[in-house]
Structures are given as C-alpha cells and as structure tokens.
Design brief:
The complex is a heterodimer of chains A (547) and B (329).
Chain A (H helix, E strand, L loop, with lengths): L19 E10 L4 E11 L4 E5 L6 H7 L9 E3 L2 E4 L2 E2 L5 H7 L4 E4 L3 H4 L6 H11 L8 H11 L5 H5 L8 H12 L6 E5 L7 H16 L3 E6 L2 H7 L2 E6 L2 E7 H6 L4 H9 L25 E10 L2 E11 L4 E5 L6 H8 L7 E6 L2 E2 L5 H4 L6 E4 L3 H4 L6 H6 L7 H14 L16 H13 L5 E5 L7 H18 L2 E6 L2 H7 L2 E6 L2 E7 H6 L4 H9 L14
Parallel strand pairs in A: 3-9, 3-10, 7-8, 8-9, 14-19, 14-20, 17-18, 18-19
Antiparallel strand pairs in A: 1-2, 1-4, 1-5, 5-6, 10-11, 12-13, 12-15, 15-16, 20-21
Helix pairs in contact in A: 4-5, 4-7, 5-7, 7-8, 8-21, 11-18, 16-17, 17-18
Chain B lengths: L25 H27 L4 H6 L6 H11 L5 H13 L5 E2 L4 E2 H34 L4 H16 L2 H15 L15 H27 L2 H8 L4 H38 L5 H10 L3 H29 L2 H4 L1
Antiparallel strand pairs in B: 1-2
Helix pairs in contact in B: 1-4, 1-12, 5-8, 5-10, 6-8, 7-8, 7-10, 8-10, 9-10, 10-11, 10-12, 11-12
Classes of the chains: A alpha/beta (547), B mainly alpha (329).
Keywords (chain B): Cell membrane, Membrane, Transmembrane, Transmembrane helix, Transport
InterPro entries (chain B): MetI-like, MetI-like_sf
Family (chain B): Belongs to the binding-protein-dependent transport system permease family.
C-alpha cells in the first residue's frame, strides 16, 4: 500500500481550511426548466468522508459534479460562496477548472466498463492523467502506472495495464478507475455510486480500498443511494431530497436517530437482513403441504460453449410459495430463469409445469400453456415497446377479449397494482421507474399466471419504491396464491420476501433451505462470505470499514 | 443488476455475401472463402449476361467493331464457342484464374492491357476524392459537434445540399465558377496535379456530406458517455476529449459506411471522368457500354467486385483495430 508516494502526511483534520466550502449552491438547467439543486451548503475538511445520500433525482450527482465544474452542458451554477481547493470557484474560467480536475479532485463513476474508455487500455487511461498534469516525466510514467495499479490492489499490474476494460472483471476495472482518479494525487476523491454496479463481495473490497485512501489522508465525497454503504465509510451524512439537504450530521447519528421524516422513511425502506420482516400476514399459510409442485426443475444443465452456466440444478416450487435465488453476476441466475420460462432448452435435465412436461415440449405446444408462467424483468423500459401505451401493454395478453372488456380489465389490473386509470394513455418513457415496474406486474398478472418469475425486479428502483413493489408482490401472492421464483443479488430483498432460498455459485446450487435457517446458520462457506460482505444498518463504530 | 449472459457471438460466417461457412474454418479462412465466392458470383453473372443477351454470341462479342470472318473465327476459337456449354464456361473461369480478362475485338487489344493503362488516373481521382471527403467531414464534425446551434444548422444544411445534389451538377457548378469564370483550374485533362482538384471535389463532396453527419452524431453520442465525463474530470480540454476519446468511437459507424462510399466513388468516377474529360476506368466503361464492347464490360464488372471484396476485408481489419472488444470475439 505504501510503496507509492500518494500517501500524504495525515492532515490535522480539525482546524485545517476546508477543501471545499459552498454556500447556497443553486444549479439549474434553464433549457429544461429543471432546478436540480436549490440552495445547498457543503464543506469538506481534509481527510474527511462526507456522504450525499438520496434517491434518484434528488440532485446529489449534480451537486458533486458542480464541485469540479462539470454540472453538465447548459447548467447555470450560482452560489453565495464557492471555494474549491483554496480558490474562488465563482471566478474560475475553463483553465482554472481544468487545473482543479484530476489534480485537486479525482472522480470515480459507477461502472468502469463505460466510465473508462472501452477502446483504450487501462494503462493509457491512467497515463493520460499523469501526462495532463505532468505528474512524472514521460519515461517514468509506465512505472508509475504499474505502481498505481499495485496500490489499488490489482494483481499482475504489468499485464493488466495493457488490457482493455472489458477484459477485466468488474472489481478489477473499478480498481483501475480508482487508480486513474488518484494518479495525480488529488486531495479529494469524488465517488459517485462507486459500488452500485458491483456484486456484494466486490463492493466490500472497493469500500475497503476507498477507506484505505481515506486513511492515507485523502478526503472523500461519496454519493450513494445505499444507506448501508454510506454507513460503512462516512464521517458525515447529508440527506438530499428535491435539491435540498433535509438532514445533516455525523453518520452514526443520522443513520441511527434520524430527525427528519424523509430520512426515517429511507431507513425504514431498506429491506432488512434481520428476520421477521417478511410476509405481511398472508392469508395463505406457506404450509409445505404435500401438494404437487406447479414448477419442477430436475437436474437441469446448460452450457454456453465450454462454460456451464447452469449445472445440475433442481428445485420444486409450490403454489403460494416464494423461492428466492441469490448469487453474484455470472452465477447462472438469469439462465435459470430462462430455463424455467422455457425460453432456453436444457442440455440435460427437465422442467415440468403443473405436473406436465414443459421443457420437453415443442414451442408450438408450449405456447397455449405460456399464460400460466409469466416474467417480470429488471428493467421494463427494455422489455416494453416504447411506442405502445400503458393500456396496450397491459392488455397485450388479453387479445381473446373484445375491445371494450379489454379496456375494463386493463383498468382493473392497473387498480390492482395501485395505478390510476389515467395512466392508460401514457407511454413507458413518461412513467417513473416504480410506475413502470407496476405496469410490468399488471401485464404479468393479465393472464392470471400460476407462476411469476421475477428477475431482479427491484434492483433498478430507489429504496422506498423498492419496498412498495415488494409489498405489492407479497400482497398479490397472498390473494392469488401465485408461486414466485424471486431472483436477486440483494440478500436483504430476498430475505424480505422468500420462504425458501437457493444460493447459486458458478451455475451450481451450493446451499438451499428455509430462508431464516440459511441466513441465520449458513453452512456453505460461500453463503457465509456473501452474508459477511453485506453492508449493514445501523452502523456501530466496530462495524466500520477501516483502512 | 442482471447476471451477465455470455456475450452472443456474431452469427458464424457473417461473410461478404452472407454465406454461412462452418465455424471450425476460422475467421481468415472464412473470409477468404466468401471473397472467392463473391468473385466467382460476379464472374458468373457477367458470363450469364453474355449468354442471355439476345442474338448470336459472336455478334455480341464483336460489338460495334470491325466484323470480318477472321475476327469471327478468332472469337469462336478464343471463347470455345464450337465446344460444349460446360467446357466453355469452365475454360472462361480458367482464363480468369490466369488473369486473362479476354480481348476487346473493337480495340484490338487485350482487356487487361486496356484496364491497366487506365487504372492509374482513376485510383488517383478516387483516393483524392476520398481524402477530400474524410478530411472535410472530420474537420467539420469536430468543429461543430456539441457546439452552439447556429454553426451546426448552417453546416447541416450544407451537408444536406452536398448529399442531395448529383455529382455531375456539383461538377458543372465547380467548372463554371473555378474554371470558366475565375480560371483557377484547367477545364479538362489530367496532365498536371491542378487538374485533379475540381474532379476530386465534385466526387468527394457528397461523401463528405454523409460522413460529416454520421461523424457528428457519433461524436455527440460519445461525448455524453460516462467515459467522456471521466476524461473531463481528469482535466482534459474539450478538444482533447474529442480527439483522444470521442473521435474513435464516432469512427465506428463511419467505417461501416466506407463500403458504401466505395460504390459512390466508383460509380461517380464514370460521370466525373466524362465531365472533366479525364482518362480512367470510368471513361473506358462509358465507351465500352455505348460501343457494346462486351469483353470490356465483363472485365469491369469483375474488377469492381474485386475492389469491393478487398475493401470489405480491409474494413474488417479496421474495425478490429479501432474496437478492441471485437478482437476477442
């Protein structure tokens, strides 16, 4: 870690002049009439970690980017005081801003697959910073790149420097992105959702890396929608809503004894890892009665080329039951969903639906049975035809009904998912994320399915919306006795909703059982690793990640 | 977060003619096989055109040339017209394989020789036109991408005009202004380099128009991507972000169009060469078509196919050079 000169002398945090001091910051986009930030004050002391939390659209990213003059094209930035790196940012021209960027503050964005230039090697990306700010003379740059990659924990840095982002794993390329952000030894790292695209174990590693930078004396401005992530690392938290800070204070205080209603709402909405949060008093008791399963998967395997995406997986799903499937990306969860839906033929094994054959049927004979098994995808914007109206989307499976009844049924379905009939004429793009997911659920319900396959149905949603959609799913299940196959990488969400759970790794089921049992007494080392990696709320000092 | 599905490979044998070749053959072999298949198809089409043309094959091959019994006998012998159909076709392919493009009975010369003498001026013209197109398009796109509305509107309008006005009209306008009125450039000929300027402009402006629009759109899309934000956050100037990051991304769709440009340039060369009185393949083709000199027309068809095949192979290489993600696929 210390082989690099990046480590600066630990600043006396107290008393030192703040790195950033903004008062009454207002950012608006006159072209669209949006006021993204409406009077925010913020200061960051050297070596301090400040977190901005809030849901999408709260203005947290715009705030952070304004600090390096990148609020966006057409943005108007005003403030009564705006000091960045010892200079008056209100007087900065392009030249001054460019000196701030990279040198004073480094930016780490969400997904390094697209935040690093996909057409250039990671070495070239890091070298760019070294060259722009003339950190070291040209001949010394390859060696410095190597040292930077090593410092952020990239093994075999010489080989990695010559690779492109798509050739690295999610964790490694996020490390490379951080290496490029700290290459000019900035005093401040702005990290905008730096772990959102990552699996939970990788997220823990990246948080540890950021904590290491902080321990080395670099200040951190962390933007996240995930309160548990923030709890792991922040000294101070600012909760944002609609472009304003609604609550501010030491992290521990804000996250354990919130004063503002909105903060309380946010905290309450986080699907908890603790037991008993599940199942809003269902009318159907999940008694494992000796009934026939609606969906039975027996020893299915499927391979893409030489890689086994799903390897000998079996499970039974009964009516009214929720089976959770957890695992990291690449573990075969989505492939399993496609197998269950009959969209992919297994290389070995069999899937049966309602006691009859399913995977063995030709598609022609599968089609009449399809209404019984429906899917809810992560991002409905991708699975909806953007030109269709909500009414048409929901009524799509109802082509057997006459036009009039179709409309009535569509209104009824929207009502079930808590949407007003006025939305019938809207198009997917005009809806919020939560509304879209409700429309997706309404469409799935239209054919009165016995099995609902939910593939990461709430991963793209803000935490408060997430809780509403999960409650809706539980409610529907309680009313209709629908069987749910619930796929997620989010352990809290799975625990919230599931009766039983499968833990997948590399295409295999490594552990399965009653959800409380598995979460409380995990037997497989991988399950333990997953559970240990989840950042938790509320934070107590001993749980904090330290460098 | 969706579990990443394995990236779907491009369909096997996404070859030049859309022919499917078994995957085990591997990419280079596949490319070669499809290239040969395209050339064979072009040769066969030319041959079929000869057979299907109404009238006696000897009459067609003579065209408007001197029709003497000796020449007729020579044609029968060279094309094997006294032999069975299959033998004729195979010997035709055999001659092509040896690089023998046949003989023009009108001009009393080997077709290969005629074409070889005319390739030079056409290559110079099309390369110059391509350079005009690329340089103008890149310069204009870089200068206007993401900038204020007015310069973009003016440039867009100019591009639209360049695309929609036929090349010969552009050529005539250029001639009137720069040759007849101003006298800066010669009216015709290909003797000195100056004579290349106007034809290259006439041929290259439409290319610049299309390419400019594609590039600017690509640049604007690339400049909104997260990696562009990251690049700016490193302190790069906007110009450096464009030059080092966005331009390469914008080139990808432009490269796709390069195959189409080849067609525009080759087709446009016919008219441009005639208009500016330049020697070249275009003029030879014109003369061969109007004079019904079938052997020359057939050779031009095969030659154009060969050019297309070569350009397509080069474009495939260019893709891989620009986009490393394609190299591992």
């Amino acid at each position: 870690m210390t082989e690099l000169a990046v480590t600066r002398a630990h600043p006396a945090a107290a008393g030192a002049a703040p790195l950033v001091a903004v008062e009454d910051l207002r950012v608006s986009f006159p072209a669209s009439g949006v006021e993204a930030v409406r009077g925010l004050s913020l200061s960051i002391a050297p070596g301090e970690c400040v977190a901005l939390v809030g849901e999408s659209g709260s203005g947290k990213s715009v705030t952070a980017r304004s600090l390096i003059g990148l609020a966006g094209p057409g943005a108007t930035v005003r403030a009564s005081a705006f000091r960045v790196g010892g200079g008056d940012a209100l007087t900065f021209g392009p030249r001054e801003w460019r000196r701030v960027r990279g040198r004073f503050a480094g930016l780490v964005l969400q997904d390094a697959l697209v935040s690093l230039d996909p057409l250039r090697t990671v070495g070239a990306e890091i070298t760019e910073v070294l060259a722009e700010h003339d950190v070291v003379p040209r001949p010394a740059r390859p060696e410095r790149v190597r040292a930077l990659l090593a410092a952020v924990g990239v093994p075999d840095p010489d080989a990695r420097a010559g690779q492109h982002p798509h050739q690295l794993s999610g964790g490694l390329r996020q490390r490379a992105l951080i290496a490029s952000a700290i290459a000019a030894e900035p005093e401040l790292i702005i990290a905008d959702e730096p772990t959102t695209a990552l699996d939970v174990t990788v997220q823990a590693q990246i948080l540890r890396l950021l904590a290491e930078r902080k321990a080395a004396g670099t200040a951190l401005l962390m933007i996240s929608h995930d309160l548990a992530v923030v709890a792991a690392i922040a000294d101070r938290v600012l909760v944002m809503k609609d472009g304003l800070v609604v609550e501010e204070g030491p992290a521990r205080e804000v996250l354990t004894t919130p004063r503002h209603d909105y903060t309380r709402e946010l905290l309450a909405a986080v699907p908890s890892m603790s037991a008993g949060s599940r199942r809003p008093t269902g009318t159907l008791s999940p008694t494992p009665a000796p009934r026939d399963p609606v969906l039975a998967v027996t020893g299915v395997s499927v391979a893409y080329g030489s890689r086994r995406a799903v390897d000998g997986v079996s499970f039974r799903l009964h009516a009214g039951e929720t089976l959770g499937v957890v695992g990291e990306s690449g573990s075969g969860k989505t492939t399993l969903a496609r197998l269950a839906l009959g969209l992919l033929a297994p290389d070995a094994g069999e899937v049966s639906l309602r006691g009859g054959p399913w995977s063995a049927l030709p598609e022609r004979r599968r089609r009449p049975l399809r209404p019984a098994i429906q899917v809810i995808a992560q991002n409905p914007l991708d699975s909806f035809d953007p030109r269709h109206t909500v009414g048409r989307l929901v009524a799509d499976p109802l082509s057997a009904l006459p036009r009039r009844q179709r409309r009535e049924r569509a209104i009824e379905l929207l009502g079930r998912v808590g949407l007003p009939p006025e939305l019938l004429g809207r198009r997917p793009r005009e809806l919020s994320g939560g509304q879209r997911q409700r429309v997706a659920i309404a469409r799935a319900l239209a054919s009165r399915p016995e099995v609902l396959i939910c593939d990461e149905p709430v991963s793209a949603l803000d935490v408060s919306v997430q809780a509403q959609v999960l409650d809706l799913l539980a409610e529907i299940q309680a009313e209709d006795g629908t069987a749910l196959l619930f796929i997620s990488h989010d352990l809290g969400v799975v625990r919230h909703l599931s009766d039983r759970v499968l833990v997948m790794k590399d295409g295999r089921v490594v552990e399965e059982g009653d959800v409380d049992e598995v979460f409380r007494h995990p037997r497989h080392p991988y399950t333990r690793e997953l559970l240990a990696a989840v950042p938790r709320l509320p934070c107590s000092p001993d749980e904090r990640v330290t460098g | 977060m969706t579990a990443a599905l394995p990236a779907r490979r491009p369909p096997a044998g996404r070859g030049l003619a859309g022919l499917r070749v078994p995957a085990w053959l591997g990419t280079p072999v596949r490319r070669l096989v499809t290239a040969v298949a395209v050339l064979w198809a072009a040769a066969t089409t030319a041959y079929a055109a000869l057979l299907l043309a109404p009238g006696d094959t000897v009459d067609i091959l003579v065209g408007d040339g001197a029709d003497t019994p000796e020449i007729r006998a020579q044609i029968v012998a060279e094309w094997g017209l006294d032999r069975p159909e299959a033998v004729r076709y195979l010997s035709y392919l055999g001659r092509l394989l040896h690089g023998d493009l046949g003989r023009s009975y009108q001009l009393q010369r080997d077709v290969g020789e005629i074409l070889a003498g005319q390739v030079g001026p056409t290559v110079r013209l099309t390369l110059a036109a391509a350079a005009v197109g690329v340089v103008l398009a890149v310069a204009v796109a870089v200068a206007t991408a993401g900038r204020s509305v007015w310069p973009r509107r003016i440039v867009s309008a100019a591009e639209l005009v360049a695309v929609s006005v036929p090349q010969f009209v552009i050529g005539i306008v250029l001639l009137f202004v720069f040759s007849f009125s101003l006298g800066w450039f010669p009216v015709s000929g290909a003797a000195d380099p100056q004579a290349l300027v106007l034809p290259a402009l006439a041929l290259g402006l439409p290319v610049a128009g299309v390419l400019g629009q594609v590039l600017r759109e690509g640049l604007e899309r690339a400049l909104e991507q997260p990696f562009a934000v990251t690049a700016r956050s490193r302190g790069l100037s906007e110009r450096a972000v464009v030059a080092r990051h966005a331009l390469r991304h914008a080139l990808l769709p432009a490269v796709t169009l390069a195959g189409w440009f080849t067609g525009v340039l080759l087709g446009g060369a016919v008219i441009t060469e005639a208009l500016f009185g330049r020697p070249g393949l275009g003029r030879v083709t014109m003369q061969a078509v109007t004079g019904k000199d079938m052997p020359v027309v057939m050779a031009v068809v095969i030659l154009s196919a060969a050019v297309y095949v070569t350009i397509s192979a080069l474009l495939d290489l260019a893709y891989r050079l620009i986009d490393p993600r394609l190299r591992s696929a």
